[in-house]
Amino acid sequence: MKTTAPRDQSRFAPDTASNGSVSPKNLLIAVDDSNATTRALQYVGRLLRETPNVSITLFHVLNPMPRELMEHGGSENPDMEHQLGEQLRKDQQEWMHMEETLEYPILERALERLRDTGFPTDRVTLKLGYAGDVVDTILDEVRSGGYGTLVVTRHGPPGAARLFSSSIADRLSRDLSGIALWVIE
Fold first, then answer.
1. Residue 30's closest CA among 120, 178, 162?
2. Residues annotated as region Disordered (predicted)?
3. How far apart are the first and last CA of the chain?
4. Which of 37, 118, 133, 157 could form a disulfide with 49 if both were Cys (CB 3.0 to 4.6 A apart)?
5. What would the 3-class secondary structure string for 137-178 be?
């Protein structure tokens, strides 16, 4: 099983063809902690567990950084400006570390669900995404990772904030080109 620990997401980046094109057997599954994600993992795992050379990246997008950590108030004094900048970077790093620690178990649970289907875990990579916009983060990962297929769910848990709502799936289908999109309900 290939996994990336928080803070080292690039080590196991999916392979692209030598000409930079996408690989049809390289799947990105966007995951959250919903029952819909569990169903998607079960479907994909059972469907592809015996298909040779299929690799899967389980991808979870972290919550956006709080607004107060995006920039400091600034100062006319260059020394104070430097101190404020250093403190802001430190606060951002602490927030990222805490967020990674809180959110990484979502990837581990997704891996367990995929493993339960019989899909070989040595062909699975875990990866966190960092950005304020879920769709843009997923699209950036798809484009840079050489994925041939993106798998998302349309519905999250009832009554909860939905990571992969209909509007997100619709936006992905509109903005994604040259990649297969599986929207699993």
1. 162
2. 1-23
3. 27
4. 118
5. HHHHHHHHHCEEEEEEECCCCCCCCCCCCHHHHHHHHHHCCC
User: Can you list the positions of beta strands (E) in 38-146?
Assistant: 55-61, 124-129
- Alpha carbon separation from 95 to 10, 111, 114 (Å, rounded): 20, 25, 29
Cα 169 from Cα 145, distance rounded (Å): 19
pLDDT digits (tens, 9 = 90+) for 71-85: 766 667 788 778 888
Count of Cβ atoms closer than 10 Å to residue 27 Cβ = 23
In the chain, the percentage of residues whose pLDDT exceeds 90 is: 45
The Cα 113–Cα 118 span in angstroms is 9
Higher-confidence position of 134 and 57: 57
Helix, strand or coil, per DSSP, at residue 27: strand
Q: Which of 19-33, 42-56, 104-118 has the lowest mean pLDDT?
A: 19-33
Crossing angle of the two packed helices 166-175 and 134-145, in degrees rounded to 10: 40
